[in-house]
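During data preparation, a discrete fold description was generated, as reproduced here:
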Amino acid sequence: MLLWERMSLLVLAVITALLVLTDTVVIWHIVLLSVVSSTLMVIGGPAMNSMVTRFVPRSSLQAANSINQLTFSSARALGPLGGGLLIAAFGLGSPWLALIGLYVLAVVATWKLPREAPVGTGGESAYVAIKNGLGYVKSSLIVSRVMVLAFTVIFVGGLVSVIPVYARDRFDVGETGLGFMLAAAALGHATGALIVASTGGFRKKSVSMMVAVVIYAGASAGFGFSTHFGLSLVFLFLNATAPPLWISSVVTLLQTESDSKMLGRVMALFALSVQTLFLGTMIWAWLGQQIGNDWMLLFVGLAFMLAHALVLIFSPALRRL
């Protein structure tokens, strides 16, 4: 599945490069290609998160998941920079040619992975597979509680829509200042991922989740009420150190507490939960217009913490993990 995903992404990159190089690209091309590529990535994510349990010892799973987060944060920071430099030096089509090369490497690396027999149940229709997967999550005390916490990522969307607004309206720092703000967040994300990867994270994943939530909520509120640009950069950095700890804890719990035959479906549901972040972006942006972005960030941060506290209070078994 992972191989097909990366081969398909390679084909999409080739199509995009051809459209750009021939100067025939229009908006609907970009929209369609973005939708298809996002769909493919959502398919590949669960496959990767399921497969890693076969190659990484249980004791090292959180560190491995954190390194995975580090690759995303590095790409988020270096991708736009590298793309901009390539465009300036070689033209608009050059980043897509570079992306084609990267996808070729990804396909080759995936092809060289050891082959193993599928561990899923197999032989089911899509409807039955979805029904059984949801039934399994509901029946498992730990998995269902962790999945509830996974869907609280909807509260994280509040900060995403606020950063450009603050760069323009509160600090008047323009595109350059916005770049510094996004760089601070990317650096914080990479730092958090490195800390978790090097230390292995907390022994108790329930504790690490709660620590991450407190850091995220506190730094979000601090950023929301800050009127000093330099201090806001510090809050953005601190805020971004929390997601690698939180995500690696949630993913590790799902990987270790799920039946191997159902792990792919569990991770697919987790991938769905991550998409609620973008729904939250719209909801909290609207709320910020009603009550002010600073109070909105305080509200969603407190709601994020409260949701975790309630689940952990009423889940003694989860607190022990």
